[in-house]
Amino acid sequence: QVQLVESGGGLVQAGGSLRLSCAASGRTFSNYVMGWVRQAPGREREFVAAISRSGSSVRYADSVKGRFTSSRDNAKNTVYLQMNSLKPEDTAVYYCAASLGPFGTKFDYWGQGTQVTVSS
Predict the structure, then answer these.
(1) Is 32:40 a contact under the CB 8 Å cutoff?
(2) pLDDT tens digits, residue range 49-88?
């Protein structure tokens, strides 16, 4: 089973940027579709982004398209989420996620999460 550890969350003003990182260990990283999901207080967990095993394909939720960019470095077993033009509604706990299944919006493994707070 893969272990996932996120870092890079914090407090930022609206319009600012943050970069999240997720370090994976325990299994062959390139076997996994990787992604990000988030959960705001009182809301269900929602899909943010997914990146294919090679990194050549990335899918985004409509709410973050054009503002967030996900990438991965298979040599470093790390996936990233660059978040620009942040909005207060982006405030949530962000979870790194992994899947051995097809490229999509469903995941099987999650990290412990990192808090992102965007102030207005």
Answers:
(1) no
(2) 999 999 999 999 999 999 999 999 999 999 999 999 999 9
